[in-house]
Structure formats: C-alpha cells, structure tokens
Amino acid sequence: MTTEISVEEMEAARNRTSSLIHNTPIMKSEKIDDKVGAKVLFKCEHLQKTGSFKARGALNSAILAKEQNAKGVIAHSSGNHGQALAWAAQKVGLPCTIVVPKNAPNSKVEGMKEYNADVVFCEPTMSSRESTCAEMAEKLGYYYVDPHNCGSIVFEVLEQAGDEIDSIFLSVGGGGFAASVAFLIGNLRPDIEVYLVEPEEKNLANLLENGIQCASETLNTIADGVRVAHVGSLCEPILKKYCTRTVVSVKEEEIRDALKLIWTRTKQRIEPTAALAFAGVLYHKPDHVKKALVILCGGNVDTDYVIN
C-alpha cells in the first residue's frame, strides 16, 4: 500500500476480483447484543476463499502479476496471506513461493502446500521474513506481493450494512488491512469510526501518538495472525491520520473469552485473530458506540489448538 492509494484503485481491484471471491455474509446474535449492550454485526470473512480476507488482496495482486508476465509470485506470511496467495497464484497459473516464520501454525503451513506453494522457513522476526523474502525474490525473479489492498471488503460492508452501523472493529497486525479499511471509510463514510484492536503488548497508540515503536519484533499472543509487532512504514501515516484515537488494546484472556462466545453462540469456527476484534467490542466498547460491525478476519484454526 502507498499513501497515494485511491478510492478508484480500490474499486478497480474489486471489479478485477469479484467473480472469483465470495461476497461474505453478515451475521448477528441477539444473545451477543444483550451481553455487549449494543447491536453487533459480524462480517464473516472466515467464510472467504482460503478462510480469510487475505484472498481479496492476494487475488488482485496475482492477476496484476500475470498481466505483467511475471515468472511467479512470492510473499512472506505466518499463514493466511500465504494460503491466499498460493490459491490466487494457482487460479491465474503462476508458481508461488512463501517465506514462513518457524513458529507459524502447522495447519496454515499445510494449507499453503495444499495450494502447491513452495515453502521456505525463516526466523520468526519481521527482519528475517523481509530479508529472506527479498533474497528469494531476487534469486527466482518473482513478483513480490505485499499483503495489502484488501479494501474491496469496505464496499461490501457499506452495501450490506452501511445504514446500520456507527463503527467498525478489526484486528491489526502489520497494518495493511487496517490501513485499507481506514482509508476507504475515511473517504467514503467519515461518520463511521474505525477501531484497531490489538494485543496489549503491541501498544500501537504509542507509535501513532508519540512515534515510539514497540520494543519487541514479535508478540506473544494466541492471535497468531497478528504476532508481527510493527506496522509497515507505508501503513503508518494512514493509520496516524485516521485511527490515532481509536486503538483498543485487549488482554489474552479477553481474546479467549471472545473466541468462546463466538464459537458457542454463533457456531462459527473463527480463529483467535478474528476473536481479537470482537474482544475489543466485548470488553472495551466506548459508550457512544451503539451499532458496531466486527470483521471476523479468518477461520484457519490451528488444528492442535484446544480451548482451555
């Protein structure tokens, strides 16, 4: 993502990919509304192709790579982006390599391989991921795909529920998805607030308000999709512009509780990273928020994971 990204570019990406991805449903639960004390809608991206919203941006990038006669595509990912890009590359007929941190869930690694991706392991730090990916991209001559431009989801949300919501809550990791959503909402519906929900160790507000990065490179959290501690440098100014005052930090036990509630009340098998966004509503909803929409970003649950 660049700071020059436009609404028109995101509309073009949506048109480019719409025939191959799902227009995912919105769900609600009266029991959850009662517990939260407000109306809560869930945008079910865990039901998207490959089990996460990442299919949107990955497919757009794969199509563009194919049009540019790329030899193949490459990315670094702890799971969902890698699976999405492997699927997208298969769809357009390109080979795919994914650089994966050693601590990635095995089920997500196996998912990448099932879509015929070549998997290269690296150390579980952003610097190792980026350097290994850059080395492999140069060696193979592949087109590098950043996990960004997933903004097509915003058009769907506004069409499905734009008149029913006053806020959007989403999980934030590297910032690509968050920046896409914040940018589009800020330009199309500035009356809707975008809340970035994070594991408390990340302390994104300190970066956006004071310019101070998190001291760690990797977060110790059950939400494996957002273990990257730092947001991308191109995402940071967008998040600073639109979300400086809307960062929500949650505890690990709050993520677990939110996951249990979704699993038991809606019967939807979301992953902990998706539950992170709901934990922000469940435990930290501002009083003025009355009609929240939570983006359930993925459903690729580690098969070895069991709720305690």
What does this structure look like?
This protein is α/β, with parallel strands linked by helices. The protein folds into 2 domains: 7-53 and 149-305, Rossmann fold (3-Layer(aba) Sandwich); 54-144, Rossmann fold. The chain is 44% helix and 16% strand. The chain has 12 helices and 10 strands. The strands form 2 sheets. A 6-stranded mixed sheet has the order 1-2-10-7-8-9, sandwiched between helices. It has a 4-stranded parallel sheet with strand order 5-4-3-6, with helices on both faces. Strand 7, helix 8 (176-188) and strand 8 form a beta-alpha-beta unit. It is globular. The model has no long low-confidence stretch (mean pLDDT 93).
Q: Brief description of this entry?
A:
With 308 residues, the protein is α/β, with parallel strands linked by helices. Helices cover 44% and strands 16% of the residues.
Secondary-structure map:
Layout: H1 7-17, E1 26-28, H2 30-36, E2 39-44, H3 54-67, E3 73-76, H4 80-92, E4 96-101, H5 106-114, E5 118-122, H6 126-140, E6 143-144, H7 152-161, E7 167-171, H8 176-188, E8 193-199, H9 204-210, H10 236-243, E9 247-250, H11 252-266, H12 272-284, E10 291-296
Helix pairs in contact: 1-3, 3-4, 4-5, 8-10, 11-12
Based on the model shown, name its key terms.
alpha/beta; Rossmann fold; six-stranded mixed sheet; 2 domains; 308 residues; four-stranded parallel sheet; 12 helices
